[in-house]
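Human: If only I could read backbone structure tokens as easily as an amino acid sequence. Underneath my words sits a plain record pairing an amino acid chain with its backbone structure tokens. Take your time, and here it is.
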Amino acid sequence: MSQASVDSIIARAERVFGEVARPQHFTNRDHCCECRDHDEELQPFTPATIPRCSLGNMAWDPITFCTDEAFRYWLPGMIRVVLTENGDDNYYEQFVWHLNAVEGGHDRYAACTDEERVVVAETLAFLLEHRSEEIERECAAGDLLCAIEIWSN
């Protein structure tokens, strides 16, 4: 995998999504204590600084509770994490799940601009080309192909 390609995708994501204003709150924090906890988890970070651990796991995932505006704000950070991570605690499965899911009435694809969708589609294509062993190990090829189909339209 070419580090230059990774850096290029991350830089493009930062540029394209950099126009998305940081929301005051990332979730409907008044909805419940879990929404408030997720909002508080994300508050100290920016997309450039959010660590993998603050993106949670499939059972406790702050991005799931984010508004569409907040989801767009966090996408460059999510892309950075998924492209630069290594080791067993990978973000791949959560990342693809978010891109396939219609969560709590949100349509993440519809919330994005055409240019933002292209960046996401390029990220997914890169993962397919350069992470095939990981994808097969996680039995996640079908989910990735579904996401590519959605985001490439």
Notes: The chain has one domain: 3-151.
